[in-house]
Amino acid sequence: MKRTLINDGWTFYKGVGTPDGVKGAVGEKRNLPHTWNNLDGQDGGGDYLRCACLYTRPLTVRKTAGRAYYLEFKGVSSIAEAYVNGVRVVRHEGGFGAFRADVTAALADGENTIAVVADNSPNDYVYPQSADFTFFGGIYRDVYLLEAGESRLDLDYYGGSGVTVTSVPQADGSAEVAVRAFVTSPRAGQKVRVRLVFAGEEVAAGEVAAAEKCGITFTVRDAHLWEGRKNPALYTAEVSLVADGETVDDRTTEFGIRTVAVDKDGFVLNGRRYPLRGVCRHQDRQDMGWAITMKEHEEDAALICEVGANTVRLAHYQQDERFYSLCDRLGLVVWAEIPYISAHLERGDANAENQLRELIVQNFNHPSIAVWGLSNEITIGGEKPEIVALHRRLNDIAHSLDPTRLTTVANVTMLDPDSELTRITDTMSYNHYFGWYMGMVEDNAKWFDDFRARYPDRPVGISEYGCEAVLRLHSSAPKQGDYSEEYQAYYHENLLRIIEERPYLWATHLWNMFDFAVDGRSEGGVSGRNNKGLVTYDRKTKKDSFYLYKAAWSDEPFVHIASKRYVKRAEKVTKVKVYSNQSEVVLFVDGREFARKTGKRVFEFAVPLRLLGATRVTAVAGECRDEAVFRRVRKPVADYALPPESTEVVNWFEKDGVRYEFEYPEGRFSVKDKIGDIIATEEGEALIMSLAEKAVAEMKARGRELPFKLSKGLLRLVSGMTVESIAAKAGGVPAEYLYNVNKELNKIEKK
């Protein structure tokens, strides 16, 4: 098969939704990959352009009789219609899977015109429609022209390669490797020839008569196992369709020999315990959106490996096939999933099923993929029978297409572990944000301890956990919701300890490796972004928490002084925190040895700051060293904190000459009580739901909408937070409003 990249020479027409619309329209010359939302999808306001846009390109082809021609698209968001010389050749619904169009009949010998309509407009049948990330529009991955024989390895089945490889290690150290080929229009006398190669040496070879479905199974002696980061051994299968001794078509695919399993005590790779500890990844990049190249994929993979992760959850959609290949070669165990997320679409079942088929068929041969993810937080708006029914079908589809891998799901916190949904897939995890959106950091430990006590034989993991940090925000007394780099570090220090104390967690995936675009967000003084990354959106800066995890997960010797960006400090003695994977850290202050400490991961020193000038601090651990400079100032620097807002309820306020005092009568509720305690009473639940509905209505009036419905389950999600703390997180809540809420709560007796 001949494959020609056709990324260059396109013309882009913004807002033009049909090929005929180019008449009188002014286009822009663009090369692929491309998105029209690379800037407006990251600047906040929730108003990025979601519409149909047109791409056109001339294409010169010298057709050969008896040959088949295809256009191959690696990713178009989110609905695509492709035309050749005015004839529609394909419609594809879904922004993440590859797809092909047989254009043999429509393609002329000589000059042709290709037109592609890409449409990321809202609809009610293609996932995703509600999610906490920007849905970038465009032809944002590569496009190819394929040429193959009429008799060929299949190109029509869900964008797959036409070849599958399944391997099963044996007790004697060998492996059974089954290679299956799917042939379009096989002919008498044709053969499928297979050759297996490891490290440049042939280890097995054979051939079988060509058929629509045919294959051959080999015994590979002294098999090299794919063993994650330790030894990601890869074999190559070379598959050829041969007629009269000549190769008609061929494929080359890498594969690995390994087994995966999950039980109550965790993940098992090749029969050995292998706790999965890693991160989640979104594919977008600052000023580029989803239109990234291999360079960006490689940079992301290198950073994930540098932090020491051994697993990555590729959320919340099928990602570029090249990134799965990088994970194969680097030994990263992958959770791959579809964008069945946040809100169930009544008309979306067929689309969810189709996207799952594409994900599995196109990525079947990647040894890095251990689990297929069926959904993410899909019950955030409440459980429904149709959600359960679709999960059952998705689970059956996954096992039918791929009996060798496990299925999983990422549940939202408020989903009861007794829910039927938690028992459909082979394993499951929960997204928990105790210590950020609700509750306290310690609640993470309590939740898992309670789960373990109730269900000692069920596997469970953490599919998301994290909190936001904005580089300019700092505090010597960090607290939940301040968006400081110091609170993010505190949060992750505790989560890391909680995870290490519970080795039975089959997988833990930190949210997120990188900051990413959410055009509807405005948090921490930053618009259009989720700031939970260990690395900034542009990949230029590693936050302190990056080094904390590197100290826990990586063997590469290093030392890092935290809070280096917190230079000006209004304190005589300051805390200097150092992260390292070495057992001893020596701290020097202004060139002289100040103290040395032994320990694990986190080393803290109380360092006096000079009254005038800079205090230079140097940390040394083995051969590694890091430096920082701090300056003492008279009062806290305002730029290190968010603007003063309603961070706590004052006891009184004055308006129009009238003094209003908050009351906290014994035995009755107030804004200082937790939501969970309040909604445990009938009157309290009614009041809180009423207040929440009013808040949602006000958001709608300002042009913002929640991506989920209010429910009792959603209130349970914030049950550990007080009304006061929720007001603080919302920011700018008028004291008069809180005063009136407090008065209403005072009327309700505590149980």
State the name of the first-level CATH class of the largest domain: Alpha Beta
Q: Roughly how many Å is the radius of gyration?
A: 28 Å
CATH topology of the largest domain, anyone? TIM Barrel
Unreliable sequence segments? none
Task: Characterize the biggest β-sheet.
Answer: 8 strands, parallel
- Counted beta strands: 43
Let me know the CATH homologous superfamily of the largest domain.
Answer: Glycosidases
Total domain count: 5
Percentage of residues in strands: 25-35%
Give the overall shape, derived from the CA principal axes: globular
Q: Estimate percent helicity.
A: 10-25%
Mean pLDDT: 94
Q: Order of strands across the biggest sheet?
A: 30-29-28-27-26-25-24-31
End-to-end Cα distance, whole Å, is 74 Å
Explain the overall architecture:
With 751 residues, this protein is an alpha+beta fold. It has 5 domains: 2-149, Galactose-binding domain-like (Jelly Rolls), CATH 2.60.120.260; 163-255, Immunoglobulins (Immunoglobulin-like, Sandwich), CATH 2.60.40.10; 269-516, TIM Barrel (Alpha-Beta Barrel); 568-640, Immunoglobulin-like (Sandwich); 652-746, no CATH class. The chain contains 12 helices and 43 strands. The strands form 11 sheets. Strands 30-29-28-27-26-25-24-31 form an 8-stranded parallel beta sheet. A 6-stranded antiparallel beta sheet has the order 3-2-4-10-7-8, with no helix packed on it. A hairpin with a 2-residue loop joins β37 (584-589) and β38 (592-598). α1 runs parallel beside α2 (321-330) and α3 (349-363) runs parallel beside α4. It is globular.
